[in-house]
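The freezer alarm interrupted the setup, so I double-checked each line after restarting. Inputs confirmed:
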Amino acid sequence: MLDVAFLGCGGTMPMPERFLASMLLKYNGRKILIDCGEGTQVAMRRLGWGFKSIDIICITHFHGDHILGLPGLLATISNSGREEPMYIIGPAGLYEVMNGLKVVIPYLAFEVFIIENPKDSILVDFEKNKAVLFQNDINLLTEGNQERKAQLEIRTLELEHSSPCIGYSFYIRRSPKFDVDKAIDNQVPKVLWSKLQKNEPQDFEGKTYTPSMVLAEDRKGLKISYITDTRPIESIRGFVEGSDLLVCEGTYGADEDIEKAIKNKHMTFRESATIAKEAEAYELIITHYSPAMMNPGEYIENADNVFKNTSLAFDGAVKTINFKGN
Amino acid sequence: MLDVAFLGCGGTMPMPERFLASMLLKYNGRKILIDCGEGTQVAMRRLGWGFKSIDIICITHFHGDHILGLPGLLATISNSGREEPMYIIGPAGLYEVMNGLKVVIPYLAFEVFIIENPKDSILVDFEKNKAVLFQNDINLLTEGNQERKAQLEIRTLELEHSSPCIGYSFYIRRSPKFDVDKAIDNQVPKVLWSKLQKNEPQDFEGKTYTPSMVLAEDRKGLKISYITDTRPIESIRGFVEGSDLLVCEGTYGADEDIEKAIKNKHMTFRESATIAKEAEAYELIITHYSPAMMNPGEYIENADNVFKNTSLAFDGAVKTINFKGN
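Predicted 3D structure, all chains:
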């Protein structure tokens, strides 16, 4: 089970009645923030989920509406008492940007670990008060080698915008069920069952028992994808395929704005819905509206006609996404 | 006549119902902004005075609540169509900070002229669509020497805070009245009167006529002072002396918070009012409230008992200050 909060849904610049597009994921009490335009910390305070438990911040690109709230947010997280490391993921140029922003946030209570334009999946295990990140089985912070079956996998995709920009997918692994018959067949001592169920291999009386000896087949997890700002390039389809939730930009609602969308490297609602349809997503939520679009609801048919399960993000909306099936 | 807008009145961090302390001055349609915390551009949009006509931005210091809205505001001003140079004044370290922030605002439509910790007065002449700034009769932009009797004088004072911080005073010169008797006594040809009244010296038939030959004595102008964040050091008194409006921080309302004020290098309402009284200001407006102070009005007596003409700033308040006397 995952909670998704839409902190804002505007593009370009912050407006009095519309915060900038930013999304917060909450899973077992730990949090991941995607994009952080000016005012995001105010939207977060309004939401009331707290600041200390944000472990990872994913930045799509360095346009002001996606990055300018970051220094203030980091300062506020620092004031919240967090001391565990913070991971910031972003496209090419992230080191340079973070280095520049240091002038206004010289002291933070935690270490900031920068992950610039990652090509390989990042695996995340959430612990009680922090996240531990791995890439190719290497712990990113300690550089220690460790095999993991992580709770969360983050992947990125290079998009097509007027500055280097990446999309994100988050896959939350679902633990397999415990299979009593399998445990008995494999002659696993009962005393080990609960630990093996927690995915921890056990040595007992000279023999090694693995979780796979008591667990059923893997179950489908949850896939959330986040795509903004970009033209609808071919590679997006495969990247977001089968998403339980696709969050996708729709800077322009009207079909007639297609030329603006092409020029400014954004998408219309219809283009967004076409991706959702072709990628066989379960659900689409459109966000990142142009400030010129006062009422996005006027244009929802342009998406709905292509992909039925579409909704429009609004500031402060919260959605719970559950695993499908047993 | 000068309009003063209080864009926000909070300190430390932006809150859902309180923008950060920032003040906008409007004089003959041109504008000066003092401080720019995160969200200031949203407060400005709510105010509705526009972005293009901001000629000067004065920063007191580089704590997040005073500077983090600057990159976003500059980007929005750039989008507004402004092409005339923008002057940014701030304490020691301004060059380095602006250089760091460049990573997130690489392209602006106008030149940014940085004035770091100025020791001498800055004189400002507002023209139709821009400001022209001088220091010791040198045009700051063109470096050309030119004698001026400017419309506005900006002075700064080093304050005592936990980072380099400066206070500001703005003195608006009031044009002297035209003195017909004096013009006749000085045998000034009538054809020159209106140009001399506009303060432009004239050569005519081999003789030079100066504005002082037709103008009465100087009249008292308007003095606005802005003091935050600081302890109430001795030098403030002389600096703000005789202000028509003193805008001063009051981070803490309760007298009992004096130890916090000393520790965090801020002021209580009472300390703020004591400055206003001793400096013989005409009027005091207190701003920059701690986020812990939900209702500053509870504490106004602590200031009122010391200095009668005190009011408390609130987000969006606008005040017109008129020249006193004829």
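Quick read of the result. The mean pLDDT of chain A is 95.
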